[in-house]
Amino acid sequence: MPRANRHAPLRPNALSLRIPEPRERPGEPLDFGNLRLSRPGALPRPPLDATAADIRDLAYGLIGVLTKDGRAVGPWNPGLPVQVLERGLRAMMLTRAYDDRMYRAQRQGKTSFYMKCTGEEAVAVAQALALAADDMCFPTYRQQGLLIARGYPLAEMMDQVFSNGRDPLKGRQLPVLYSARDFGVFSISGNLGTQYSQAVGWAMASAYKHDRRIAAGWIGEGSTAEGDFHHALTFAAVYRAPVILNIVNNQYAISSFHGIAGDADAPFASRGIGYGLPALRVDGNDFLAVFAATAWAAERARANLGATVIELVTYRAAGHSTSDDPNVYRPPEEAKIWPLGDPIDRLKSHLIAEGAWSEERHAELEKTLIEEVRAAAREAEAVGTLGVGDKPSSATMFEDIFRDQPWHLREQRQQAGV
Amino acid sequence: MPRANRHAPLRPNALSLRIPEPRERPGEPLDFGNLRLSRPGALPRPPLDATAADIRDLAYGLIGVLTKDGRAVGPWNPGLPVQVLERGLRAMMLTRAYDDRMYRAQRQGKTSFYMKCTGEEAVAVAQALALAADDMCFPTYRQQGLLIARGYPLAEMMDQVFSNGRDPLKGRQLPVLYSARDFGVFSISGNLGTQYSQAVGWAMASAYKHDRRIAAGWIGEGSTAEGDFHHALTFAAVYRAPVILNIVNNQYAISSFHGIAGDADAPFASRGIGYGLPALRVDGNDFLAVFAATAWAAERARANLGATVIELVTYRAAGHSTSDDPNVYRPPEEAKIWPLGDPIDRLKSHLIAEGAWSEERHAELEKTLIEEVRAAAREAEAVGTLGVGDKPSSATMFEDIFRDQPWHLREQRQQAGV
Amino acid sequence: MPAMNMVQALNSAMDCMLERDENVLIYGEDVGYFGGVFRATEGLQKKHGQERCFDAPIAEGGLIGVAVGMGAYGLRPVVEIQFADYIYPAYDQIVSEVARLRYRSAGQFSCPITIRAPYGGGIFGGQTHSQSPEALFTHVAGLKVVIPATPHDAKGLLIAAIEDPDPVVFLEPKRIYNGPFDGHHERPLTPWAKHPDSDTPPGYFTVPLGRARTVREGGAVTVLAYGTMVHVALAAAAETGVDAEVIDLRTIWPVDIAAITASVEKTGRCLIAHEATRTSGFGAELSALVQERCFWHLQAPIERVTGWDTPYPHAFEWEYFPGPARVGAALRRVAETR
Amino acid sequence: MPAMNMVQALNSAMDCMLERDENVLIYGEDVGYFGGVFRATEGLQKKHGQERCFDAPIAEGGLIGVAVGMGAYGLRPVVEIQFADYIYPAYDQIVSEVARLRYRSAGQFSCPITIRAPYGGGIFGGQTHSQSPEALFTHVAGLKVVIPATPHDAKGLLIAAIEDPDPVVFLEPKRIYNGPFDGHHERPLTPWAKHPDSDTPPGYFTVPLGRARTVREGGAVTVLAYGTMVHVALAAAAETGVDAEVIDLRTIWPVDIAAITASVEKTGRCLIAHEATRTSGFGAELSALVQERCFWHLQAPIERVTGWDTPYPHAFEWEYFPGPARVGAALRRVAETR
Ligand SMILES: Cc1ncc(C[n+]2csc(CCOP(=O)(O)OP(=O)(O)O)c2C)c(N)n1
Ligand SMILES: Cc1ncc(C[n+]2csc(CCOP(=O)(O)OP(=O)(O)O)c2C)c(N)n1
Ligand SMILES: [Mg+2]
Ligand SMILES: [Mg+2]
Questions:
Q1: Average pLDDT, chain A
Q2: What is residue A29's predicted lDDT score, i.e. its pLDDT?
Q3: How far is CA A32 from CA A35, A37, A289, in A?
Q4: Which of A73, B209, B357, D264 is the most buried (most CB within 10 A)?
């Protein structure tokens, strides 16, 4: 029986290999036993100068603010003004509308590849709002919300996705691997994990220059297994770097579940404990909790107290990318009954509960944003889509290898006849 | 003022970089503040099936059995028969005598390089005795005690150190990078850290084959910063591999102290916590404590309960290797006043306290062992030392790249005229 | 014999070895329940059990480090690196451990592992899903590097690699997983089923490592190629009418030097084609070898047609890929130089 | 000008750049208080302060990952990898990040970092303290690879590397740190002080990257070498009496192609020497380049004298090292082939 782990040894006292399996596969009953939930408002908010040792428990619970009925409770409630909440809601909704549009564009053959962050919007958006505009971000491909929350032009994001003639990256990168120096977003790598220690290096540089800016890095729970994750935490601890090290636990790598990355016996947040770093485990679909935890870590880093590890527990509601069908490896209904709900719905309910929002205004806003995206798409598509219309000149293929083009690249450009 | 960390920011609220510094440098007062000691016998010995979560505290204390006056106390006292203690004492003393001889041989130009484990003998020797003879060891270059405790012929070890005609490794490896398959000791790598995940792989294979043998890996505290360390703990946790992951914290890498490897705010043992692995912090100069902790972890692994992380706190009393002078970077008197003392002296005092040993017998034994080493050295040196006497045939240089020699190596051997 | 595409052939090879040898096991990112992002291990977990084919953490260095330990125990792990572009985190374990273990232990330990990795361009994968890093392994003493160009060879070579007593880096030209892509991206891809080399025995068989295959006999120019470039070279020969002798190296290291020199001594001319960046690519070694051994037979300079010395840019898939036009032009130059 | 050995020259270069540019900082294993295992950073922490030159954890991948972030901020980190043999854990960061950052970000970010690493054999360091991995970097688009052969060039090139807007892998032939070792291990080493190229300006100066230096003019054979092999080649020329033109490449990539072709067109013969293993070593690229560009001038096959395709074995230091005897014999062959 292949699925079953042969824990029952064949011979008395014989060893056996444990292969972690998710609690649910297509066609099986659902059970979120390993989620380690806490009641919203239940966990304390320690003082900034608390030592990592004082607050180890925060790595094992789940920091939350929003209750089921949309109220904001407990010490982590950031008490944000409505305008900020509306900005956050808008950015999350815009991110989702953007994703939907680009996903369809890929399906229509306008580009080669796309990745959505549906269900995870609170992570990048709330964190973008909690950070200063000039703090430096080292994201993965799933934090497009950072760019959107920081006001990066949608049409330019699309230019990159289409590799068209206006693509700021000159058609060199796979779709969604943006780079936006002027918006404090580092060039996104196709290689998992590498940005994590780079974020620490940037933070060390900021400290070295007695600057005030801090850095933030993001990594998926699956990628925490890479050596770069360990290097980042080690260097951050040793040099007390002003950096926030985020682990986005959206439950899946591509097809493999979080257990394959090693959280069967300890949550990812607790990885920080062994380095003496404060570690917070946060409801990543709770906009207020994400904002509050990030603000706490940012204040701490700016006070020269060093790095914080934050695990953001969320759920990847869409496929990993346009290249996979998630229903092959997980139950299709899982997303709908995900215990932590949807970040947009939850912030919306909160605003409504606060009397600051309504279903009508929500529907209205949604329409506006879809229109905004459509307009941007029209603009970008008018320039070109992958293989159609205007594209970067082929000569640029041989540029930016070095600042100055050496003889061999000049020669190759000539051979290419461009 | 170079030495001082500029923690006081230059501008109000400006960040600054923390560069860890040891509490002592040559010519400065000594202080072992970061040692996190516990009273011998003070820490509990949990049941084998305790969960990692139950026993986190053991990563922060220091498991000890031997008191200052040589008594064995507390739940971790393995209650070993005198014969076993005498075997351990003998192997530790033989290891030290061997090191002294080989160190002098290098100084006399008989080989290129040597590394002593003086002050750390209890680690490898007690662990060798606590493991089964066919458990597989993946050591670093500083666990020569494993070979000696398992009865590997001294003369053959010397053949390797001298790269002579009888060197089982055919003169291919730097001195001390032994390999002894028949003694359950894996080929020692010159590249730090790599053996750690390999040990986990061997353990996974043993579990896969429903075998009963377990594996043990060793890594220096400095090398825990390598990605392999993280890979080893991750894979061990995910697949519940029957392996013991030892961290030998001898306080120094080459010149850099433990703080540069990142234990300022958390001991190395606690790294295991974030993976959900039981983690023990042990007095590495306490033979009984090292034996007991290792036996506990081995029993646990054999019971299919998975891996244990063990930090062995010890002190590198000699230089890193024959290539460095430790007095340049640490106070010469530090070794003498090291709070955890010397493992051989401590086991000796215990045996004497038990009435099973005496200064006379000790001196006697020491003489015998020095003679044993001298005899082996005579034998090995008679065969050859580096560059003198019999050496492996040059043709062997082109063998064992692959099992079968391909055309290009045949050709190169001919060009070399051998 | 059944017609297989390359993915089916690789799957069949692993299925066959899981059946024959209980010391063979397979792991890698997404290879278990899901069957791999390219489906190469599809169904193997269900058929052979979880311990025989399972998912692993995203840590290529860990994947290989663990394989070294398994090999030392006596297993024959087959590790999938999801894309060759992601093999670098494992580079230290491969170079310092996998390649050197037999040597440094004087044969006490060996490393009979197989590292599978899809490689090469032509799929709009951008710079991190299109790389051809073979030369980074041919420079390392102790590694064999194998690259199949047909389903039949993919199966026979993979079985030979798994059974080999030494480590094999097995690079799979993913662009030809489904059909013999010849660089004509503007035309529909002919499926393998229509190609004679898709005939693949359903059971156990091997294609010996270290032997090249002459896929087209000719007298004018020797073309040395491997992987997708074999099919591009054939197209270029057909289209230019140059009477080229096209050699599929199959095992690029240790390379079949006898087959190469015999052909160049016959033709007196040589063209080398690969997708990898030009500088210090494997073409450089081939060029040096041919020049050293066939100098007095050479009637024209040996040429290399390769990827440019740039990352593989997403928007310039076909400007970067050394297709039949570039190979054809070089073929003419080499053939016509007097 | 003061006579410096190579370690003093490197130390002087870093001292000078720490003085001139506060964005320059140095870190690595044991480089701080201790001053590095080869003493290259001796005294720099004491003089410039802890934040300018400090110890780092033993994690080469971390050292480089952190440097990428520092470079993105605007610093110019100089990272010491204790031995080139230990650079592989950083290989992913170097290949996938350092080399590609400017390209993939279309110039938004660059990576002005310098990676220093002692390399090469001749010190009885065994297989993990003797390697020459240069070709593993010349194959990677986006990296410059520099190898000095004298104290004067070591200082001038290191300053140029630190000031270069792009990443430089700076490999230091540790065998000639203290003197121009020519392969005659049986003789006492002449210290640099007795060698004219030890004259090194005490202050700031640069030796431009990308330019080779002809260290011996000759008409019979062009010898392409770098690092320790430059001195071995000179010895071989002197001892064989072959009128060799010895070119010290200094920057091996991008290589000074004009200097190479000019010389080979003059001599019609070419010998390439390096310590690295032969197959896919940088000599293969040099051989291919010369053959492609100077084919009609060549009067004899280009030869390569290199390390063997084995790890560097402890007991066979001099059987492995391509010394003056092997280089001299090849020099004669190349010169005398008719
Ligand atoms: C070094 C490396 N290995 C493998 C891959 C292939 N890959 C791309 S995304 C992915 C899954 C990542 O999962 P996770 O880290 O959880 O991030 P998520 O996609 O869930 O946001 C894999 C295996 C890669 N891009 N880089
Ligand atoms: C990958 C790698 N990097 C650097 C070195 C050089 N090196 C050899 S031993 C050593 C210090 C190791 O310290 P630690 O891990 O504490 O072990 P110890 O020597 O104290 O037993 C260093 C940096 C190496 N051998 N391998
Ligand atoms: Mg994930
Ligand atoms: Mg140590």
A1: 95
A2: 66
A3: 6, 10, 21
A4: D264
- C44/C24 Cα distance (integer angstroms): 12
Distances (CA, A) of D137 to A375, C276, D168, D169, D280: 46, 14, 10, 8, 12
For A305, the token pair is 């107290």
Percentage of chain B beyond pLDDT 90 is 92
Q: What is the pTM of this model?
A: 0.98
CA atoms within 13 Å, Cβ hemisphere of A399:
13
Secondary structure, 3-state, B171-222: CCCCCCCCCEHHHCECCCCCCCCHHHHHHHHHHHHHHHCCCCCCEEEEEECH
DSSP per position, C129-156: SS---THHHHTSTT-EEE---SHHHHHH
* Shortest alpha-carbon distance between residue B233 and chain A (Å): 9
ipTM above 0.95, yes or no: yes
SS3 call for B159: helix
D188: which 2 tokens? 């006492």
B270 CA from centroid of ligand 1 (Å): 27
- Cβ-based burial of B12 (10 A; exposed 0-12, middle 13-18, buried ≥19): exposed
Choose one of A113, A142, A176, A223 to mutate for the ligand 1 pocket test, by most ligand atoms within 8 angstroms of C-beta: A223
Ramachandran category for residue D49: left, alpha or beta (phi over 0 → left; psi -120 to 50 → alpha): left
Which residues of D fall below an 8 Å CB-CB distance to A?
Answer: 25, 51, 56-57, 59, 61-62, 65-75, 89, 92-93, 96-97, 101-110, 141-142, 144, 165-166, 210, 254, 257-258
DSSP A235-283: HHHHHT--EEEEEEE-SBSSSSBHHHHT-SSS-GGGGGGGGT--EEEEE
Distance of CA D259 to the CA centre of its chain: 18
Classify the C-alpha dihedral A295-A296-A297-A299 as positive or negative. Answer: positive
Q: Residues near A109 by Cβ (< 8 Å), separated by ≥ 6?
A: none
Measured from the CB, is residue D29 less than 6 Å from ligand 2?
Answer: yes
C184 is catalytic: no
Paired strand residues for A190: none
Q: What are the pLDDT digits (tens) for C79-134? A: 999 999 999 999 999 999 999 999 999 999 999 999 999 999 999 999 999 999 99
Q: What was the pLDDT predicted at A102? A: 98
Tell me how far apart the alpha carbons of residues C160 and C157 are, in angstroms, rounded to a whole number: 5
CA distances from C260 to C225, C264, C267 (A): 11, 6, 11
Distances in whole angstroms, Cα of residue C17 to Cα of each of C13, C203, D291: 6, 10, 45
Subunit partners of chain A (3 or more CB pairs within 8 A): B, C, D
Q: Where are the alpha helices (DSSP H) in D151-281?
A: 151-163, 228-240, 257-267
pLDDT band for A13, please (50, 70, 90 cuts): confident
